[in-house]
Amino acid sequence: MTFVLSLFLAVGLFAPQSQAAAPATPVTGGGTPTGTAPTRLAPPSSSLESPADKAPAKADGGRESASSQPLPEPLPPQVTGLPQTRRPEAKTLGQGAEAAAKPCNVGDFTSRTGSALVQQIKASDYSCIDTLFRIGRGDAANAFRESQMVTVAYAARDAANAYQGNDSGAITELMYYLQAGYYVQFYNEDVVGPYGDALLTAGRAALDAFYANPRSRDVTPDNARPLSGATTLIDSTQDAAHYLPVLRRLLNEYDSAAWSRADMAWAVNPVFFSLSRGPGQAGYREAVNADPGVMDALFTFASRNRDLIGTNLGTMVYNAATELGRFMDYPEFLPKLRPYVSALIAQSSPSGPSMYERGALTWAALHYDKGNCAYYGVCDDPAKFKAANLTVKHACSPSITIVAQALDATQLGTACASLNGQDAFFHAVAKDSGPVKDDNNGTIEVVVFHTDFDYKVLAAVIFDIGTNNGGMYLEGNPAAAGNQPRFVCFENKWASSFEIWNLNHEYTHYLDGRFNVYGDYDAGQVQPIDWWVEGFAEFVSWSYRKTVNTDAIAVASRHTYKLSELFDTVYARSSQDRVYRWGYLAVRYMLEQHRSDVDAVLAKYRAGDWDGARAILKTTIGTRYDADFDSWLTRCAAGACATDTPGQPQLPECAGGDVRKLDANCVRSNVAASTGNYAHFYLTVPAGTKQVKITTSGGTGNGDLYYNPGSWAYTNAHVFRSTNPDNSETLTVTNPPAGYVFFSLYAQQGFSGVSVTSEM
Predict the structure, then answer these.
(1) Is residue 387 classed as helix, strand or coil in its secondary structure?
(2) CB contact burial 499-515 (16+ within 10 A = b; e otherwise)
(3) 0.85 surpassed by pTM
(4) What span, in angstroms and rounded, lies between the C-alpha atoms of 302 and 321?
(5) In this structure, are residues 218 and 165 in contact, taking their beta carbons and an 8 Å threshold?
(6) How does pLDDT run across 95-124, given as a tens digit for each residue?
(7) Helix, strand, coil % over all residues of the chain, rounded to 5
(8) How far apart are CA 29 and CA 422, in angstroms?
(9) From residue 349, how far is each of 283, 385, 388 by CA, in Å?
(10) CATH C-level class of 18-30+393-643
(11) Which fold has domain 661-759?
């Protein structure tokens, strides 16, 4: 059985004029740098998540939504530092790697204490214990309260004292159980209870005994998994300061020739997890000052193992470089680190296999020692990385340009179709009257990296953003001349077919900022608006793609929040579920049940009247809809949100037998025309009408929309036109003349099944 390379995203933060995304929307369709934990090595025994991925870290939510196909368990940033490091692939594990999974019953663990619990763990399959990371809250305390964990830790100590260089004493399972406990307790401390000195003492007893046993230094496949469990447990216990000597030793002893053959990469890679989160732990900085040899070990590791670059274990070198750069955040270490970082940068390039190592080190040098960028030779590295890697440029429309690392013509066509088609849907839902005042963001640049790892490393350097997220919208100042908004995203490589992660969610942020929310994101932070910003992006993304938001339906069944509470959502202080899933539910409920209130709030948002919008939400509405929202959640969880997937707001079919005639707020369906011909429409406009909006969507082929106020509209007789490369067209006419006005859909390519919607 082989290892699986599994990449993990941490949660991003908003920064001035930027929005960072947690894992979100695929296509089938900005920020202060925040450090992230290294990516971890997946075990061969489980097709799910690695034991190393079960660190006791808590997701605080991402600026962008978690839409369809969530990534594996997110690992949040714990320290200021570098882009996320990567998980190396390895070959096989020794003892037990191919063992068949045994039946697993949570009650076997929650019903036992003392020696009975220990014996149950020892008798259990590794994959069985893996399921305990996802244990329910109702069982969490019985499995992982501190007294249970202390019992298991001392059992692990006894197994460590008797360790024979393999898993004959089930030390791997005991340590994995402890990892699960730390993970579950972190997310459910209110249920499990606190962990204190008793567990710290017992855990150290287990780890000290293991590392003191000479068999723990065996360079064999049999020792790989137990050693990995112990080293990962250092990270789980957040005890890096105490175990710096062990971490340093493992780095110094790793030899790519011998250790790779014995699968020891899986055992050594967790060193980087502990180092990445060490800065967030009490006493860590002081410990490094007292024992700075870990920095020498990281440099030596990266230098000695450069032959791994370009192989499936090359990310070990990247991890070492990343953690070396992280220490630059401590000014007292800069004199020691400068020659190390400079030497490694000199051996790498902005392109090719070594570009990730250089990217991590360049990021560190430019952030922690920018005044000396010439010393490192990286002052112009952002431009070099961009020129070397973002080589694909394609215009989807006059307003949308894709800049990509590796998209081919077919993929570009798929992405463009998804983006171009979204405009009509967005405007139909938003019911806007055009761009908000002072918004000049008439074009958007969509930057697509080939993988999420490319995004993490390269986007951090090129755009100077935090990339521990699923993508980021960089709005800039929409009132500034020459401002170029863009969003940065990546291809979804774990999907079965081509997808771009977060594409539609991020594009909604662009449209929302241009047509619904005045100024940049920071301008709106006078009052909480994240319920709308993220909730609406989620709603449009899911609804436009006509996909059921199963995650939101799942949280709806819990009835966690009142609607009035969701109006108070602030991204930086809220969970990912609250920001995205509950944001989606709140926005969907308001759009479906109280559209007039949404319009009133949007009128304030569009004018930048944040206090006025807040007054509507918290005073005019207040708690008035809480009971109804709770009832709606019940219906949603029972199937209404799955069977009644929201799409473009449903309008009635236009009346009358003349298929050319449009009326206020109706739709003509199944419109068709052959190539070079027209589908003509007319509309009677009452005097004093402020706006007429015509949108087209769906069907096959490509129809372009034209408007003429006094006679039939043609390609050579029109005032306005919308000519996207598909059937998604929108024309908004403000203050139209009274009487007949005319619209035509010209068949650039023969079309059929098109819907034409008129609103006024």
Answers:
(1) helix
(2) bbbbbbbbbbbbbbbbb
(3) no
(4) 6
(5) yes
(6) 333 344 456 899 999 999 999 999 999 999
(7) 50, 15, 40
(8) 10
(9) 36, 9, 10
(10) alpha beta
(11) Jelly Rolls (2.60.120)
